[in-house]
UniProtKB/TrEMBL annotation:
One Pfam entry name: ResIII
Catalysis: reaction(s): ATP + H2O = ADP + phosphate + H(+); Couples ATP hydrolysis with the unwinding of duplex DNA by translocating in the 3'-5' direction
Helicase ATP-binding domain: residues covered: 88-233
Record keywords: ATP-binding, Helicase, Hydrolase, Isomerase, Nucleotide-binding
Region feature Disordered, mapped onto this chain: 444-469
Name this polypeptide is given: DNA 3'-5' helicase
Similarity-based family: Belongs to the helicase family. RAD25/XPB subfamily.
Single GO term (MF): helicase activity
EC annotation from Swiss-Prot or TrEMBL: 5.6.2.4
């Protein structure tokens, strides 16, 4: 009788030796001349095990180091119907897949339910330190008798339940890969990036759950989520959950006019940009129009002048004084409500913070200060908070009723995340949340607003090619201004400045 093959984990791969009989498993393997053994990518662990078992191939599994856990929750509440439906759909897909739910729809509690029904060692991956500590508090409250650890922000724990940032999990992917049977990816749209995807690729975890409000990525790599985690198994949007799970909400768009001086400068800048685009036969509405514009702007003084004109036009539109006047009116109107103000850049955050005496949070805010500000905001000591992008993900403030977007990108994900900040029902009854979107009239901001809200775009007047779907225009960051391009160096303020399956994952040899 031939000796059984041994399956071992080795830094993100599996080694199967001696080679078993049959060819069913060979398509997963690659011969490694350096060690004269077959290697299999760790992500194929489950498929390999099922293949070997199906063909009655004898083997010894020394790869897995995950174990069973006694996950008895400290508290239980009746799940919302959509949470039960999502959990069932995930189980029916062999506990591999992505659940798409809007912010504030209870994705964290859904993950807790998945952990209870899959009681094995678990790695939870999150994008920010704020979210890491938020998940830590939730899981500790749910399973107080279980050892829960952190990886990131100076912590390097190795515990049966581990909560890690994407950065830290990617750095340690080779050593984490065989420790956990269940992987939970919060905001899983981050995973398909070149750096983060190794978290999934180097892991043998047979059970995987992805959570996100917007899985789509601009680079198209969201299709890789099916390989890294599993298919989308359940999806519901804001409209379907509003009024029941989420707070009722209203979206109000306020258009402001540019002043006469602002309009004159804006039109001049747009004319310079559009003239260059026409002569270069570049359409910003085409799939690669922006990349072509960036490349062309680096090749000639005229191109550089057009790019600077484009940036100046954007700054005028996003920084019109009319937005500050509207902001003043909205703060006065909602003086009894908690308010979140979003802008597209830090300079505007600090300007509003200084002019209105409002606490500000940016990526430059140190952790302790951020924690102190958010705590006082949740407790109602601070009624208003201004931020740029850092609170799109990871802030839990249930009683916020009003959000004001003074400027932003055309990203639908950013828009949904900002709306999600005010959709939690909170402690009051019949909460009505309001999202104000302040847009400069007759400027490119109107098209940016259409893009992020998913509205059908109307054709633009330039250039002649308008057949391709427009894409978001992202500005290059540069402080360079040269008088030879005839662009004024005077800066306008920015934006108002028992498990399913046929094999054992218990950890027993």
């Amino acid at each position: 009788m031939p000796r059984p093959s041994k399956l071992k984990y080795d830094r993100g791969t599996l080694i199967l030796h001696p080679p078993p009989r049959g060819k069913a498993w060979i398509e997963l393997a690659t011969w490694d001349d350096r060690i004269e053994k077959f290697r299999i990518p760790a992500i194929h662990y489950r498929r390999l095990i099922e293949t070997l078992q199906t063909h009655d191939i004898l083997f010894i599994d020394e790869a897995k180091e995950f174990i069973c856990l006694d996950l008895t929750p400290n508290f239980q509440r009746t799940p919302y119907p959509h949470q039960e439906e999502a959990l069932t759909a995930w189980k029916q897909q062999n506990r591999q897949g992505v659940v798409v739910l809007p912010t504030a729809a209870g994705k964290t509690y859904l993950a807790q339910l998945a952990m209870e029904s899959t009681p094995r060692t678990c790695l939870i991956v999150v994008p920010t330190l704020d979210l890491m500590h938020q998940w830590y508090a939730q899981i500790m409250a749910a399973f107080p008798d279980m050892e829960v650890g952190l990886l990131g922000g100076g912590s390097r724990d190795r515990t049966p339940i581990l909560i890690a940032t994407y950065n830290s999990a990617a750095i340690h992917a080779e050593t984490l890969g065989n420790q956990y049977a269940l992987l939970i990816f919060d905001e899983c749209h981050h995973l398909p990036s070149d750096f983060f995807r190794v978290i999934a690729e180097y892991a043998i975890a047979p059970y995987r759950l992805g959570l996100t409000a917007t899985p789509e990525r601009a680079d198209g790599s969201h299709g890789d989520l099916e390989v890294l985690i599993g298919p989308v198994v359940y999806r519901k949007g804001v409209k379907e959950l509003s009024g029941n799970t989420l707070a009722n909400h209203e979206i109000v768009q306020i258009k402001v006019k540019l002043s006469e001086q602002e309009r004159q400068k804006y039109d001049q800048a747009i004319a310079i940009r559009n003239d260059f685009l026409r002569k270069s036969n570049i359409s910003l509405g085409s799939l690669n129009g922006w990349q072509l514009f960036v490349q062309a702007s680096a090749r000639s003084p005229a191109g550089r002048r057009a790019m600077l004109a484009h940036r100046e036009a954007k700054e005028i539109a996003s920084g019109t004084d009319g937005k500050l006047r509207v902001l003043t009116d909205l703060i006065c109107e909602h003086h009894n409500d908690s308010i979140l103000i979003f802008t597209n850049d830090n300079a505007t955050v600090y300007r509003i913070s200084q002019d209105f005496l409002i606490p500000a949070i940016t990526h430059q805010t140190i952790v302790k200060e951020r924690h102190d500000i958010l705590t006082k905001f949740r407790e109602g000591i601070y009624k208003t908070l201004v931020t740029s992008h850092v609170l799109n993900e990871g802030v839990d403030v249930p009683d916020v009723k009003v959000a004001i977007i003074l400027s932003g990108t055309g990203s639908a994900r950013e828009y949904i995340q900002r709306l999600g900040r005010i959709l939690r029902k909170g402690t009051g009854h019949n909460k009505l949340a309001i999202l104000y979107e302040v847009v400069a009239e007759d400027t490119t901001e109107e098209r940016t607003s259409q893009r992020r809200r998913g509205e059908e775009l109307t054709p633009i007047d330039y250039p002649k090619k308008v057949s391709d779907q427009p894409r978001q225009l992202e500005l290059l960051t540069s402080d360079l201004t040269d008088e030879i391009y005839n662009i004024s160096s005077k800066k306008f303020p920015k934006a108002a400045e028992s498990l399913d399956g046929n094999y054992d994952v218990s950890g027993d040899a």
